[in-house]
Write a structure and sequence with these properties.
2033 residues; mainly alpha; 103 helices; globular
Amino acid sequence: MGDDSEWLKLPVDQKCEHKLWKARLNGYEESLKIFQKIRDEKSPEWSKFLGLIKKFVTDSNAVVQLKGLEAALVYVENAHVAGKTTGEVVSGVVSKVFNQPKAKAKELGIEICLMYIEIEKGETVQEELLKGLDNKNPKIIVACIETLRKALSEFGSKIILLKPIIKVLPKLFESRDKGVRDEAKLIAVEIYRWIRDVLRPPLQNINSVQLKELEEEWVKLPTGAPKPTRFLRSQQELQAKLEQQQSAGGDAEGGGDDGDEVPQIDAYELLEAVEILSKLPKDFYDKIEAKKWQERKEALEAVEVLVKNPKLEAGDYADLVKALKKVVGKDTNVMLVALAAKCLTGLAVGLRKKFGQYAGHVVPTILEKFKEKKPQVVQALQEAIDAIFLTTTLQNISEDVLAVMDNKNPTIKQQTSLFIARSFRHCTASTLPKSLLKPFCAGLLKHINDSAPEVRDAAFEALGTALKVVGEKAVNPFLVDVDKLKLDRIKECSEKVELVHGKKAGLAAEKKEFKPVPGRTASSGAAGDKDTKDISVPKPGPLKKAPATKAGGPPKKGKPSAPGGAGSAGNKSKKGLETKEIVEPELSIEVCEEKASAVLPATCIQLLDSSNWKERLACMEEFQKAVELMDRTEMPCQALVRMLAKKPGWKETNFQVMQMKLHIVALIAQKGNFSKTSAQIVLDGLVDKIGDVKCGNNAKEAMTAIAEACMLPWTAEQVMSMAFSQKNPKNQSETLNWLSNAIKEFGFSGLNVKAFISNVKTALAATNPAVRTSAITLLGVMYLYVGPSLRMFFEDEKPALLSQIDAEFEKMQGQSPPAPTRGISKHSTSGTDEGEDGDEPDDGGNDVVDLLPRTEISDKITSELVSKIGDKNWKIRKEGLDEVAGIINEAKFIQPNIGELPAALKGRLNDSNKILVQQTLTILQQLAVAMGPNIKQHVKNLGIPIITVLGDSKNNVRAAALATVNAWAEQTGMKEWLEGEDLSEELKRENPFLRQELLGWLAEKLPTLRSTPTDLILCVPHLYSCLEDRNGDVRKKAQDALPFFMMHLGYEKMAKATGKLKPTSKDQVLAMLEKAKANMPAKPAAPAKATSKPMGGSAPAKFQPASAPVEDSVSSTVELKPDPKKAKALGVSSKAKSAQGKKVPSKTSLKEDEDKSGPIFIVVPNGKEQRIKDEKGLKVLKWNFTTPRDEYIEQLKTQMSSCVAKWLQDEMFHSDFQHHNKALAVMVDHLESEKEGVIGCLDLILKWLTLRFFDTNTSVLMKALEYLKLLFTLLSEEEYHLTENEASSFIPYLILKVGEPKDVIRKDVRAILNRMCLVYPASKMFPFIMEGTKSKNSKQRAECLEELGCLVESYGMNVCQPTPGKALKEIAIHIGDRDNTVRNAALNTIVTVYNVHGDQVFKLIGTLSEKDMSMLEERIKRSAKRPSAAPIKQIEEKPQRTQSISSNANMLRKGPAEDMSSKLNQARSMSGHPEAAQMVRREFQLDLDEIENDNGTVQCEMPELVQHKLDDIFEPVLIPEPKIRAVSPHFDDMHSNTASTINFIISQVASGDINTSIQALTQIDEVLRQEDKAEAMSGHIDQFLIATFMQLRLIYNTHMADEKLEKDEIIKLYSCIIGNMISLFQIESLAREASTGVLKDLMHGLITLMLDSRIEDLEEGQQVIRSVNLLVVKVLEKSDQTNILSALLVLLQDSLLATASSPKFSELVMKCLWRMVRLLPDTINSINLDRILLDIHIFMKVFPKEKLKQCKSEFPIRTLKTLLHTLCKLKGPKILDHLTMIDNKNESELEAHLCRMMKHSMDQSGSKSDKETEKGASRIDEKSSKAKVNDFLAEIFKKIGSKENTKEGLAELYEYKKKYSDADIEPFLKNSSQFFQSYVERGLRVIEMEREGKGRIPSSTGISSQVEVTCVPAPTSTVSSIANTNGEEVGPSVYLERLKILRQRCGLDNTKQEDRPPLTSLLSKPAVPTVASSTDMLHSKLSQLRESREQHQHSDLDSNQSHSSGTMTTSSSSTANIDDLKKRLERIKSSRK
């Protein structure tokens, strides 16, 4: 019971996790009570249980689980945070609840799932349930299906996605478990309830019995549309409304909802696509061309079978479509025509939208083929064209259809009209705009007057359908001329029509296929045809919109008028559509007089031609009165104007009468039904008078009135032709002026641009300047409407004229055309006016483009031209392309039909000749401009291939392709590009160029779009793969594009798309998505209202959307054309950042206005690093200017936006200086409290302060300097170290202020410079100040010189950069300055140097003029100071201060980890200025290298060494404006500055101080772990490894023995070292750099460590040893295999020689060798066998077989044999060719051994057949012996016979006999004299004795003589790891032998014994004769460094003592880089001169 009471005391959440079930049960019960009590869904209580809910549902105890489920259900229902638990809880329910036997548990589980769906987590729930369907337990599957079914039944198909469920249904029906099958049946019935017949195709393959059962169930279902019964939280209000409506008896809302729901699933979507192109018969294309129709039929039948698949995979169907089209168009066998048409139908149905690109080619052919009479052919063609129509838009095929309508064949006319009718049925008011309706109506109106009744009927049906689709209002203007009978017929047809979409798109999804109902015949009459068509061609899926217009309503082309109206639709004076008055007949003069006399007073008519002007005037007055009183219907306009034109008519001489007459014309035109007939009577006269000074205005008024009555387009055309047919220039210019105004008043609709242009060209050529000016003004007005394309017509004008036109266009740019005030017919109702008016501007642009006269060029694209373009010879191809360019140029604007040209050009886009590719791209650019928006239809077949060219490897080709794509996109908009899979297919290609260009393009275009097609989601998977592309640029572009994809698709969709990625990739991508979510721009706002949107001016239109994401969207609507530069500076260059910047502050801006209490500087992690990186990568402007330009200020503003409080930023960038003062005051206040923030934004703060230096206001400057003083004090307290970037963007501008006229300011600046030396090395300040001495401002020069003097005085000569000599020479120049203060300052500075440095100064300053020199000497005398001790003290104090900041605080306050990387970065950024700091840096490095050797005992000396120069190691100086200088002799280009930094850190690795060493190791580890930085270590690997094993030796010998030291410290150091090594040896490229000698020492160190018993006793010792084990394996695997093998062999040899060495050591070395042997099969090809065999040869010489056998262990000999055996096995006989490096092969025991092995292995070999096996041994013998034996022995005997070589010959013979004991030399001796034979035998015996005896002669030499490497002068040098081996029996000849080899390798002459290179150099590669044992290398380097340091310290440039050539030679034997040495030698020589 005690236990019980224990858990009762626990809090609820702990009870819930208790191991006792009772405790948990109690916990769940209490939780349930708590949950029921909490009223607030957002209560923090809920969050406590977040992690426990999964445990509630997955409890292992069934009873407890039930209670847990109840509690979980309440939690999910009420908790605001419950959504976060969806995934884990539902997966728990599926796996642990659905398999429970208790029904209650299952019910609760289902309820929980449904509740999650209710709280908007449907997608996650469905995902988990679908996963559950893959479970092996049928119970779980059944429960999952049941849950899905209930969810669907309750929530409806809008919430539960049906597609994934339907995909798994067939699998469920095949389940072995009956329960699963039954449940599947139930869910299939439920799905059918929602989507009806769409479900049939996916289930057509299930078991027929099951299908039958389903059919029976389906029939029973009620027919009404189902409604959801349960709603999401967000829909609950809707539910309440619905209930109210139902109680009131209506359910409109519900119905409305279904309408949206039904078309959600489309059967097509549920099908798998089938790939058919590869399945076409191989000979298809031959057969289809065959002469026999049977063969052609076979080919077509094969295709027909394939295209029956309901969904086809996208591909290149161009050839197939071409072949089918040819059959349809040309084949004489009608049966085949029908068959080909069926194939086309199948293709169109299966491909849907993807077939759209071929539609344009096929439609004209099919329409023309309707001339066939046979019903089955006609039907097949109808089916084909209907299916094809659904794959494209009416807009795209309109040109082709209209062209066929004029055909003479009545059947073609009839079928075309019927097709149009059927097509219209698929349209809606928005997809059938006026611009499209107008040409169709014009064509159909001709057909309703056709002689053939079937043509008339079809036309009536088509017009009726149009009427039904768009309504009478839109169609009536086109039916003005139709008589009432016909009009009624059209209306009657209209009533019968049933649209595919009904009034909604609701029914579309119910129809399941495109296929028309068979059995319909051509003669079925219009109505019958229409009805069948209704059922037969439904539209699956959502309706397609033709991209014709953006406007919602139809565009306005001249205002429509009522049937009786005077205004007619503007129609470019085409016949057939004019208003009723147009047909007014011309009346005779008599009739006119009669009509006029009926309405005018008699006197009036009599006085018309009176000779007295007064009477005529009176007559006119009466005439006017009569007209004013007349009623419109009674006014005989034609009669009246004829009366006015009656003699004297327009020749009236009295201006008063004439003015009156013109006024009356205007009145008649305004008040009467004025026809064009009447207009023609008066217009001539009006034009004649328009130039008249007195009557001109009246004439213009009259013309305007006529234009209003007869429409401007017609009037303008008449007036222009009349004006230019006469010669009066005044009339011409005034006509043009009138037209300019008229266009502004009436708008541009319907004007015939082409006619105008020819007249304008005439006017431009006129001699009268007034005419030319008027013409240019008119062009300006036209430009407003037409846009830049207008200029194309005038490109061939004279340059002078063209520049005037351009100037006029420039004036108009950015203006929007005025809204029309006239031309809106007064008879149409005002409602119509408004409705139309709103729509017009949106479409104005399109209208105008339509108006441009376009030339038909298809006839010029001949087959010859096409074949030329495809010719094999590139020159002919080029000719073809030139012709095409010529054709397009000539035509200017072209029609969209360009014949076979697209295919031909497409072929050239992948031409092997890049010049032609570029030419093709240029042509395609021309084509886009020439074709205008109609280029849309070519996007798929020509546009997408242009995108492919973006993947070209040549930069210029890519640039051309991008320009072309942009030109196209400008014409087509983006929709066409983004629709379909084409774009995603391009992105899928793994071409880095293509990917980065395409993503860049999308990132530019997407932000400007308001909406995108859904197909954009197809690009997302490829976008994700780009995010992880190997190419950095691709990754970057993908990241840039991410926010814009998200802007259109939303975060949810994007995150969901990561589902298919690998887990690691998914995490990375999701992290990027989160980041992008923060940077996601808002969608561009809808364009501003009518007036502000330019109608045709594409220049302004282009900029508008682009500006929205960059600047605040408010400005984008107001400011039509922002400065593109400005936009760029603001952030297009770094979009993400700017967007983020905008976003962060904007959220809180309201709050901040009241409350400014928050931090002013926001710490952005890695913000500064990123900015430095951007500046380095030239992504942003470098902060370098003479005066700050706007783009710098904007850039700084953008960068600050993310890390400076918004309100402060507003103050900082305010135009008023007082705000700057406020900002500075705030910054001073926050300085102490926000240190982190200030340091994080330091670069930006300093940049902002540099801007203040350019302000003229003194108070701001003073305040800024005050702040700087405080700032640098703070930084020095914080021990912060200025980065190079901060220094270079600030110091030069601060130095400018040192020359200020005001004393106070100068003083402050000097004080700041002084403080800066505490945070930035004085030696780096020096060059900046030196740069300041070059200023034109004398005050600045003087102050800078003084500052230089102070620096030298404080810090000694080492600050002088690049060298003291150079610096002083520059300072000395100023002694001759014009300005006295400058002269004094220069003299004082040099005197200061003299005080520090003595007479040396005179050498350093070089030659001065006598005058200057005398001044200097005089000044020095006056100063009368001997070199004093004072400065030296200072030198000691100050640098120690700086050093303590920099070295002990580890360079940067932030600690070692960041420090290394930032150091390296800085060092890299500095590489542009290597001359700076070179000399000091070299010395500096030397001192540090010295430290390596001091085993920690010299810590006290370290500050002395480092003293002067530590700073210079860190970063070299970067001068903002680099000047080219003579390179100093000290300039050592072998060492970039990164190198010096690394050298410095590596030198610290071997430090005696454990902490220093650990810090250095940490920094290096940081570098090694970052892939992009690791390569900085390249070239330093040996150096680093040497330092490391020196540290290992130091620990082994010193630290481990030190009692005082904490062993934990040692373990820490070991783990650092091992960790570093492992990092290093994981990077193969670096690991391979380790040389043999270094590897040998490293392995020695590691194995020693493994055997160190002291380590094993430590607590973590075992762990260390395990790590070392792992490291050794890494070293063996990753190092250069030759080097490591060689190193191990030498190490083994040494360990066996050394008496002190433990046998365990040798054993471990051999284990390593065995591992290497195991690796050999994989690495054999990368090994330099010659070197390895040389090493083995040396080994065998040192240890002959007998000696090895004497070893205690047999392992060494076995190891050697195994190694050789493996090499023989892998290489075979070829191994004998690898003995090239062994000098006397014949004496080598190795060669004999190898030959034996070869022989043995050939005997053993069982791989050959028996016979071959028998011969094997003899054959190899023949090869290796007999073939060579004779020559070999002959050679030897020849030597013995010669005087000089006799001994050598005998030795060779002895070796040979020893090797081949069975060799027969008898034949050679037989022929010789007896004396010679005995001589030979005696010689052999002597040699034998000598050799046998050698082994026994005791030798005391050992190899100790070689161990101490004498090139190291320091006596303290540690003995190399080749341990001393006194007393081992080894003959000296062995060493002489080695030495001989060694000498040859190194190319040395006879040197003294002690100059011998050490043993290990034998192992070096032949090419680099310098790899000594690494320790030797280190020592020799140290000695050299020490000497060079001494030389520099004394600065005694004359002394020769410190360098002798000896030192140099020795160092050359130990430094790996000879070039490096040469450079050093150069330096030393030059320094001596």
